[in-house]
């Protein structure tokens, strides 16, 4: 999809609507729900290797991908849409799916569908990602069974994918149009895991894809429980029903240990809080305890080893620098 002149800012007006509709013509037929002069659209497209993503904020509209359009041009790809604000209804012939914030929908460019971005009091925002069919590490019959299935973006693999897409949508303007292919690989793995869980479970995933997706899930679990001093490699392994040795192998494949990754995440959270002027009067030992460090002395040693200065000195320097910049 083309960025056209819709990359930055919300554009509006009759000419802008017809220009954008022309840009979308190879993919779908688009019609506004109101007057063309009232139509508003903002689109930002990103490429991560061969993975294409887009963030759209728009007024109410309807769209259709017809058999005729598929016959004229089909990139033969799967796509997932995450609704961030507002609502839309998608009908792929198997039934209607209502997308509300934090919900996901899987589709295929090779199948007809139609949709309606709901008419509300504000603009709707949604984020999509498109992966060429040959790149998805799943049997096609497995992937095809996920088409039209609604997913929750609040739990399981859906929450992981939703989190990544939400971050991309928020930071879309900070990415170059051609982004990091490694991020594209992450999106492929998460989409494959989402499709697999909706059909045959993770048994259908290739071993490498399963390992990478499991690692992402484990990392998300760790980040959600950093405040728990009982968060140990053994507790992480038990929570994911895997052996401790397999957990260690997953992280060793990334060139790190489970314990060091947990410690680094905790230290980063503590460093963030120590840099926050609003937390100037929160004692250092309380910040340490907040992020799972049971002993203040052990926290100070770990912080000094990681950042070269004790936490109290770090706080003084960081806050002093901020005051000087504001003068």
Automatic annotation (TrEMBL):
Domain HTH araC/xylS-type: 216-317
InterPro entries, sorted: AraC-bd_2 (IPR035418), AraC_XylS_family_regulators (IPR050204), Homeodomain-like_sf (IPR009057), HTH_AraC (IPR018060), HTH_AraC-typ_CS (IPR018062)
SUPFAM superfamilies tied to this protein: Homeodomain-like
GO molecular-function term, one example from the UniProt record: DNA-binding transcription factor activity
Keyword Transcription among record annotations: yes
Keywords from the named record: DNA-binding, Transcription, Transcription regulation
Superkingdom of origin organism: Bacteria
Keyword Transcription (UniProt): yes
Protein's UniProt name: HTH araC/xylS-type domain-containing protein
Organism: Amycolatopsis coloradensis
